[in-house]
Amino acid sequence: MDCQVLPGMQGKLWIDQKTFQWVKVTAQVIHPVSIEGFLAQVEPGTRFELKKAPVANGVWLPSHFALKSQAKVLFLINRSSAENETYSDYTKANRFEQTGSTETPASPSETNPKGSKS
After folding, report:
1. Is the residue at 107 inside a domain?
2. Residue 30 located in a structural domain
3. Cβ–Cβ under 8 Å, residues 62 and 74
4. Among 53, 50, 56, which Cα is nearest to 91's?
5. Greater confidence, 95 or 73?
6. Is the pLDDT confidence value at 23 over 80?
7. How confident is the model at residue 84 (pLDDT cuts 50, 70, 90)?
């Protein structure tokens, strides 16, 4: 897929002073960004925010994601969308769980956080 996103965006990055982990990033589109030439164009005003929080010793994982987007598809169809997701209650998933005398891989639901959309 051919697109150059970064030249059309500006953003901020927050860093935790004690751990040097990034804890929040926000960005917004300031110039139209074309995707595959004429296929779609992401419009100025599109923005996102991603936050991370510590969940274990030195492990930081996403805690919040928000997106508000505006785009034109084939230069004819205006499309807007919004997402607001919160992630919490992370648990460490075992690589393999023991059932009887055989080992089976953990199910995908065990490796995902409890997420909520609003």
Report:
1. yes
2. yes
3. no
4. 56
5. 73
6. yes
7. very high
Domain, as residue range, for 104 = 6-117
Task: Report the distance separating Cα 34 and Cα 72, nearest Å.
Answer: 9
CB-facing half-sphere around the CA of 35: CA atoms within 13 A: 11
H or E element, residue 18: none
Sign of the torsion angle spanned by Cα atoms 99, 105, 107, 113: positive
Neighbouring C-beta atoms of residue 47, cutoff 10 Å: 16
Alpha-carbon torsion 61, 28, 48, 41, what sign? negative
Mean pLDDT estimate for the chain = 79
At residue 3 the predicted structure's pLDDT band, cuts being 50, 70 and 90, is very low
Task: Report residue 29: phi and psi, to 5°.
Answer: -80, 125
Backbone angles phi, psi at 110, to 5 degrees: -80, -15
Digit-coded pLDDT (tens) for 98-110: 555 454 444 444 4
Number of domains in the chain: 1
